Amino acid sequence: MKPKRTIDLRLLPKFRDGLSYIFVEHGRIEREDSSIAWYGPEGAVAIPAAALATILIGPGVTITHAAVVALADNGVTVAWVGESGVRFYASGLGETRSARNLERQARAWADESQRLQIVRRLYAFRFPEPLDDDLTLEQIRGKEGVRVRDGYARAAKAAGVKWRGRRYKRDDWEEADVVNRALSAGNACLYGVCHAAIVSLGFSPGLGFLHTGKQLSFVYDVADLYKTEIVVPVAFAAAGASTEDVERRVRHTLRDKFRESKLLARVSRDLLRLFDLSEDEVDPYETDAAAPGDIWDGDKLVAGGREYGRSDA
């Protein structure tokens, strides 16, 4: 019998200290020692899984079972995406094993007054000035709409690009103009990083507060905090520089921007602030991921993993 493999997740780098993401397509991923390697047209490239937040797997990629295990052991969120990274199909499990933050999110989502508080806080995070308490959600949405339109206008002017509005068809990617393709590619990268942060800290990507009804609703909520500030200027600048290979150039530039802006740390910090949590009270890791959790018993919790029908239980 093989010895039981245990991973102490506290030994892994924290999400906020890692690299943001890597996008791969048309190649093979295999395990190499305790990490992974990418085999593409130009040969093998070692990938530091222990320092990676998420890996976006595009078309034409094969990945071994051992490589997925290595990524899981290192807390890397694995996302399977479409061409240029602009469609999301599936994801793997991050390093979090505790459901405490998920339960806190679910309580806030289900309670109307708490949900309203989270929604207002999501909006407030985007503005440099405080929002008046007497503003309605409709008025706040109006202010946000003006902010986003101004952001597009400034980016278009700086890049010397004509902006006709946000228009694209998921089923006909090439029909969109170069600016819209750049924006979609950039947003996909941002969604991947935000999704990884949400899962890493033990929240649910599906329980959104502003966005609702989709499995990635909360991802869209969180990504909107940074989209106008980071993705929009990069996308317009890339589209203004050239119409060739704009998606790849956006991805490469955003990797640098995410690092320069310390985005991973910002997302982690903002998620905790959103639910009034401090880093000192958040420890979502467990040394034994296979250990049973507690059992709800009305007004208390009882230990799981026991056979309560036995007289000695």
Describe the structure in your own words.
- With about 325 residues, the protein is an alpha/beta fold.
- It has 2 domains: about 10-90, Ribosomal Protein L15, Chain: K, domain 2, CATH 3.100.10.20; about 100-275, CRISPR-associated endonuclease Cas1, C-terminal domain (Four Helix Bundle (Hemerythrin (Met), subunit A)), CATH 1.20.120.920.
- Helix content is about 40%, strand content about 15%.
- The protein has 9 helices and 10 strands.
- The strands form 3 sheets. It has a 4-stranded mixed β-sheet with strand order 1-5-7-8, with helices on both faces. It has a 4-stranded mixed β-sheet with strand order 4-3-2-6.
- The longest helix has 23 residues, at about 135-160.
- Residues about 1-15 have low confidence and may be disordered.
Fold topology:
Blueprint: E1 19-24, E2 27-32, E3 35-40, E4 43-47, E5 52-57, E6 61-63, H1 65-73, E7 77-81, E8 88-91, H2 100-110, H3 112-124, H4 137-159, H5 178-200, H6 217-223, H7 227-241, H8 246-260, H9 263-274, E9 295-296, E10 301-302
Parallel strand pairs: 1-5, 2-6, 5-7
Antiparallel strand pairs: 2-3, 3-4, 7-8, 9-10
Helix pairs in contact: 2-3, 4-7, 5-6, 5-7, 5-8, 5-9, 7-8
